[in-house]
Amino acid sequence: MASKFVSVATALVGVTLLSGCLGIKEHKGYVLDKELASAVQVGVDNKASVEKTLGRPSFTGQFNDSDWFYVSRDTKSVAFRSQKVTDQEVLHVHFDQAGNVAAVNSTGKELVVNISPVDDKTPTLGRKRSFFDELFGNIGALNSGALAPGNAPGQ
After folding, report:
1. How far apart (Å, rounded) are the C-alpha atoms in residues 18 and 137?
2. Which residues form a coiled coil (predicted)?
3. Mind listing the pLDDT tens digit for each residue in 74-88?
4. pLDDT tens digits, residue range 96-122?
5. Residue 117 to residue 151: CA distance in whole angstroms
6. What pLDDT, in 10s, does the model give residues 84-102?
């Protein structure tokens, strides 16, 4: 009886530990409806009709608002690892000067780039200062002539 209890408890602990390795799936951003996206037509629609059909974009162009982006991303993360992109869709709607749709482009996961930052220090110019140099280095460096009577600003 005791060995059966131990084996059941061990199995439960094992299942509990392995459940953390299943991963978490998340959807981030816009929920893209392909039928609505295909309804946006070049030369027919304008900003108002696109906003009425698709809603406000995820973000607009950085330098002007003639580019609208609808971004949808699905990710998966396992335990303590980084998130991995499993699916991504970006709908780019470009407008002309009059506000009419000039182009509609759709891209996927092929534009996702994984960047691995390096933990090395960034080299800087100048001299190296220790903690105590930074802390006590400015003592006595104040120009005492600047605080003399008659030299204060506004006098």
Report:
1. 55
2. none
3. 988 887 777 888 888
4. 999 999 999 998 888 777 677 776 776
5. 51
6. 888 889 999 999 999 999 9
Q: Could you give the domains of the chain?
A: 23-112 (3.30.1450)
Q: Is pLDDT at 136 greater than 90 in this prediction?
A: no
Q: With cut-offs at 50, 70 and 90, classify the pLDDT of residue 18.
A: low
Locus of tokens 């802390």: 135
For the purposes of burial, counting CB atoms within 10 Å of the CB of 154, is it exposed (0-12), middle (13-18) or buried (19 or more)?
exposed
Q: Measuring CA to CA, how many Å separate 154 from each of 111, 142, 150, 151? A: 59, 20, 9, 9
Cβ(32)–Cβ(25) under 8 Å? Answer: no
Which ranges in the chain belong to alpha helices (H)?
A: 2-19, 34-39, 47-54, 131-136
Which amino acid, 83? Q
Give every CB contact of residue 93 below 8 A, 6+ residues apart in sequence: 40, 50, 54, 57, 67, 68, 69, 70, 101, 103, 104
Residue 35's Cα: distance from chain center in Å?
A: 27
